[in-house]
Amino acid sequence: MIRIHDRDARGASKTGWLDSRHTFSFGGFMDPNRMGVSALRVINEDHVIPGAGFPTHGHRDMEILTYVVSGALAHKDSLGNGSTIRPGDVQLMTAGTGITHSEMNASGEDPVHFFQIWIQPNVRGASPGYQQSALPDEAGRGGFTPIVTPEGGEGQVKIHQDTVVSLARPAEGESLEAAVGAGRYGFLQVVKGQVSLLGETLRNGDGLEFAGGKRLDLVAHTDAELLLFDLP
């Protein structure tokens, strides 16, 4: 099973300060055929104007991953954390028994572009937590590099789920392989650029859902940035 999630078929939320695209059902966008893949529940691509953002709001029992493409995002939460997330960082918030946070564009001049991703945990009622890691410069060069794992580690954040999220940053013309094990589920998110596989071209914003046990051979048509989800 291979299914392309066309970027132009995503749901949309647009206000004076936010332009958001929803790969899966979210908020006012409801499509019974787009309810996520395995534990992967939300992929929202957000653009926020300078000086604006999401005021304090709450979550429970969700692992929330934030990946900044350009600009800078200021985070504050009820655990007392305050940080700025920039390209090259990976941030994971465990909502657990309950957490409140805000996410604001850290700049008064430049927009911020980021992906926010929700993954359902394999345990309910965990203690809320916050992690942020600066990725090494070589992450994603020459293939997929794990950045989110159940164990955590250097250059990784630890998630409460049997899930691995990996990053690839191929150069134009580079070939690479995306694969997950048999009996599992895969989802490939194009963050930047264009890649081709199976005679199809995927552009920034497109996603690809596929069954485990398959190897996908990709070619980058431009410099690109990809996230690969290996899901239970």
What's the layout of helices and strands?
Layout: E1 2-5, E2 11-14, E3 18-22, E4 40-48, E5 53-59, E6 63-70, E7 73-77, E8 82-85, E9 89-94, E10 99-105, E11 112-119, E12 129-134, E13 145-149, E14 157-158, E15 164-168, E16 175-179, E17 185-192, E18 194-197, E19 200-203, E20 207-211, E21 215-220, E22 225-231
Parallel strand pairs: 13-14
Antiparallel strand pairs: 1-20, 2-3, 3-4, 4-11, 5-10, 6-9, 6-11, 7-8, 7-10, 9-12, 13-15, 15-22, 16-21, 17-20, 17-22, 18-19, 18-21
Trace the largest sheet across and list its strands.
1-20-17-22-15-13-14
What percent of the residues sit in helical stretches (DSSP H or I)?
A: under 10%
The SSE string, one letter per element, is EEEEEEEEEEEEEEEEEEEEEE
The count of strands amounts to 22
- The total of helices stands at 0
Rg over alpha carbons: 17 Å
Largest sheet: 7 strands, mixed
How far apart the termini lie comes to: 16 Å
Strand content: over 45%
Structural class: mainly beta
Task: Pick out the low-confidence regions.
Answer: none
Q: Please tell me the overall pLDDT.
A: 97
Gross morphology: globular
